[in-house]
């Protein structure tokens, strides 16, 4: 993976247009940049593979433990949707496995938005400022076109009985589609059983 192709006794590097450029015509800084990038990517590929294996082994180990409990006691150790927390005997190490639903929204979402807009416009005494702000925020999409799910769920928690708000919330409920689930695993440690849990980070952005 050194980026050099040998052909007919000559050595070439491929440019972004797919052209073969003789190595002696490549600027030294470009060759050095290429070497640096390829070195880093080799390490990144190896680390990515290790993390993938570690993730798989972790889920297998947790699943094996839960299976042993189920066989021994006839019950599983975990919460709703397969969420599981395992803690070391001294209470200083913790592994948390979380299962989260993957959601999407059906066409009822547009119906809900229309009814919510109708509510805000029709109430003669006006909707509270915080409700108007939440409504505006909830139905906005980000640059990837994704709906703000947290704001939508905040709308559902508002205790408004005034029509047609309940119909809007019914449409919003019907719009929610569960299309799958994702498993997440997190790791924590603390100095003693009374100390605060500290996450063990495995992503580059958060690593110390």
TrEMBL record:
The name this protein goes by in its record: Sulfate transporter
Lineage: Bacteria, Pseudomonadati, Pseudomonadota, Alphaproteobacteria, Hyphomicrobiales
Top-level division of the source organism's lineage: Bacteria
Organism field: Azorhizobium caulinodans (strain ATCC 43989 / DSM 5975 / JCM 20966 / LMG 6465 / NBRC 14845 / NCIMB 13405 / ORS 571)
């Amino acid at each position: 993976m050194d980026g050099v192709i040998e052909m007919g006794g000559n050595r070439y590097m491929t440019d972004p247009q797919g052209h073969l450029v003789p190595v002696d015509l490549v600027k030294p800084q470009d060759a050095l940049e290429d070497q640096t990038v390829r070195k880093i990517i080799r390490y990144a590929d190896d680390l990515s593979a290790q993390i993938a294996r570690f993730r798989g082994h972790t889920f297998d180990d947790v699943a094996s433990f839960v299976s042993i409990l189920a066989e021994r006691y006839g019950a599983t150790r975990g919460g709703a949707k397969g969420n599981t927390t395992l803690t070391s005997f001294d209470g200083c190490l913790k592994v948390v496995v979380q299962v989260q639903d993957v959601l999407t929204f059906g066409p009822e979402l547009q119906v809900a938005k229309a009814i919510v807009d109708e509510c805000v416009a029709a109430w003669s005494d006006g909707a509270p400022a915080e409700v108007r702000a939440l409504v505006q925020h909830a139905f906005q999409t980000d640059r990837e076109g994704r709906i703000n799910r947290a704001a939508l769920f905040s709308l559902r928690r508002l205790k408004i009985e005034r029509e047609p708000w309940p119909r809007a919330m019914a449409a919003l409920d019907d719009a929610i589609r569960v299309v799958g689930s994702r498993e997440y695993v997190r790791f924590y440690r603390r100095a003693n059983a009374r100390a605060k849990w500290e996450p063990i980070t495995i992503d580059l952005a958060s690593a110390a």
